[in-house]
Amino acid sequence: MSLRLYNTLTRQKETFEPIDPLSVRMYVCGPTVYDFAHIGNARPVIVFDVLFRLLREIYGAQHVTYVRNITDVDDKINARAAERYPDLAPEIGIRRLTEDTAAQFHKDIAALGVLEPTVEPRATEHIVEMVALCNELVAKGHAYVAADHVLFDVSSMADYGRLSNRSLEEMEAGARVEVAPYKKGPMDFVLWKPSKPGEPAWTSPAGITTSGRPGWHIECSAMAGKHLGDVFDIHGGGIDLAFPHHENEIAQSRCAHGTDVMARVWMHNGFLQVEGEKMSKSLGNFITINELLETGKFGGCQWHGRVVRFAMLGTHYRQPIDWTVDRLVQARATLFDLSFLHGVPVADGPHPDVVAALSDDLNTPSAISIIHGLAKSAHRNAETAAVLKATLQFMGLYGDETQVELNPGHEARTVDTAKVEPLIAARLEARRRKDFKESDRIRDELAAMGVTLKDTKNKDTGEIETTWEIAR
Ligand code: AMP
Ligand code: ZN
């Protein structure tokens, strides 16, 4: 069975051939740690976790290296630390902010069933490598020093723009950014810049005498190069990162190392949207992972991490997702139905059809419909049940949670059905005598038991009839 992945670089689905099947290497851009991660940020984390699991299944767990970095040098971090800790020395405030935010991120994504990457490098621990890359690029004529900055000269690279499929001329024509006077070309980008007083600062490269700090793009080139080598297999992130971030990572790494590609396959997840708009901090329409899991801010109840993961994987990773309460309700209902797998033994590995579906460019919707099919026969067939459990575990969708745990913040819903019908009859009787206080009281009593009522008028008799269901 072959693995096929859509490659942004070639704009087509390709058969994946690792450079070395004994050492399959993937890099994914991680969070900038200045604030809670929102549920849009969770999408690449979950999507590439599924790919990591699939690669481990195909090539063997010990043969896959997954690097997902932490960006802890950034203007937004400096600004937020100064705002939150005005009385602390900047470096202490920054460290506190980045450590707390990284710890929160780890807690959030662990709840979403995400495995730890093999390496999780931090930008601040790779400054030496960033300085070396800057020096290399200047020495090779791909970068220049101006006004204490190191800038990448995009005109020095024949095929700059290959990932985003745009020529330099097109980009320059469309450039609306105000161009700094010290830049040679409008699309030249910063590799290193001087630090203002109070900002984190390191000894600069290329003979610059003032201290400074790295730009964002060089951070990923340095961390990827250090942990995965000059050329590796897969690089991933959200589609918004394709330009300029990934384009510039490619320019830096290829020009420094003299290679044709940085990564062979470039993968990008689509956006998570709310009411047709991208969920983002700048638009203010975001919901954090933490709020989803621990508050009732979205849909009036807390959502279990496994439910969130299931809901996320219901859409193919390259499509936009519209994030709705209904999506979560359905995911929760499915996981409720699968909780009969408690105590069932686990098979050795996942169902091959699910592995095949995922091997077709991570077709998670197809994998989930196969899971639904397996669930139907698993009730009657112990072998299928064992395989289904192994399949769910493989996809990070099963963790032995009980129905109560899947519904955090609610009491156990074991409805004594024998009590329901008499209460409904008593309520209808109360309504007939127009004792609405009593009928409402009975409705509330049933609601507290987890039973919701639906009243309909019988067209022929004009009588009110009541049906009920157990609320989930
Ligand atoms: P940031 O912290 O903004 O650099 O984003 C971290 C990761 O989340 C990147 O891979 C982004 O592409 C991704 N991302 C940000 N917003 C969304 C969204 N609304 N939907 C999907 N992915 C997103
Ligand atoms: Zn990156």
Please report the distance between the alpha carbons of the first and last residues: 40 Å
Average pLDDT taken over every residue: 93
- Distinct compounds present: adenosine monophosphate, zinc ion
Q: How would a textbook summarize the main sheet?
A: 4 strands, parallel
Q: What share of the residues does DSSP label as strand, in percent?
A: 5-15%
C-alpha Rg (nearest Å): 27 Å
CATH architecture of the largest domain: 3-Layer(aba) Sandwich
Placed side by side, the strands forming the largest sheet appear as 4-3-9-10
CATH overall fold name of the largest domain: Rossmann fold
Counting DSSP H or I runs of 4 or more residues, the number of helices is 16
- Estimate the helix proportion, in percent: 40-55%
What does this structure look like?
The chain is of the alpha/beta class and 472 residues long. The chain folds into 3 domains: 20-269, HUPs (Rossmann fold); 272-412, Isoleucyl-tRNA Synthetase, Domain 1, CATH 1.10.730; 417-470, no CATH class. 42% of the residues lie in helices and 15% in strands. The protein has 16 helices and 15 strands. It has a 4-stranded parallel beta sheet with strand order 4-3-9-10, with helices on both faces. A 4-stranded antiparallel beta sheet has the order 5-6-7-8. α7 links the parallel β9 and β10 (263-269). It is elongated and about 90 Å long. The mean pLDDT is 93. The chain binds adenosine monophosphate (AMP) and zinc ion (ZN). Residues 29, 220, 245, 249 line the site of zinc ion.
